[in-house]
Amino acid sequence: MTLITRINRLFAADMNAVLDQLEEPEVVLKQAVRDMQAATQGLKASLAATEEQIRQHSDVVAHLKSKLEEFSRELDLCLDAQDHELARGVMRRRLETGRRLESANRQLTTLQTHRVQQSEQLIQQQQELESLQQKAALVESAPVEDLEAAVTEEEIDVALLRHREERRQQHHIQERQGDDSGGQGGGS
């Protein structure tokens, strides 16, 4: 039984290797770009829906604030007229509206936080999509063996930092040499 299991595993591994060789990198990369574009569009739609919810909640908050102001005016009228029974009813509505306003403000804050997270996620996804599109363009324009020649953004940043450090060190060495030659000429 163990021998049959080993043969099955060997056959499955060989089949996977054959399938990997049959897949064209260009086709796989194009599909990855399409998938990433679809995901980006989905995230944009989700962000737009969140924006609409924020707008609706902002309208509710504004409405509740105006209702609170209205109830405050009505409460003043009731108290001026010394109608305490009517004032109690207005106060109840004012308190209920205040609680609804607090809840709506919490929901609005939650939505705004969610929007920030979605925006950050969208930016990251768009950067990944752009990188993937650049790789796809390289694959289309270059032979497969040239793919290792593609330079990533991180490699560019590191190379720039190294170059800056080299320039700084050279400049520092030149300053020392200038100080040494100036000091020797003055001592003679």
Short structural summary:
The chain is mainly α and 188 residues long. The protein folds into 2 domains: 2-150; 151-188. Helices cover 90% and strands 0% of the residues.
Description:
The protein has four helices and no strands. The chain is mainly α and 188 residues long. It is flat, with a radius of gyration of 34 Å. The protein has helices spanning 2-22, 25-80, 84-141, 153-187. The model has no long low-confidence stretch (mean pLDDT 83). The protein folds into two domains: 2-150; 151-188.
Uncertain segments of ≥5 residues (pLDDT<50)?
none
The total of beta strands comes to 0
Number of self-contained structural domains: 2
* Oligomeric state of the chains present here: single chain
Provide key terms for this protein.
mainly alpha, 188 residues
List the helices and strands and how they pair.
Elements (H helix, E strand, L loop, with lengths): L1 H21 L2 H56 L3 H58 L11 H35 L1
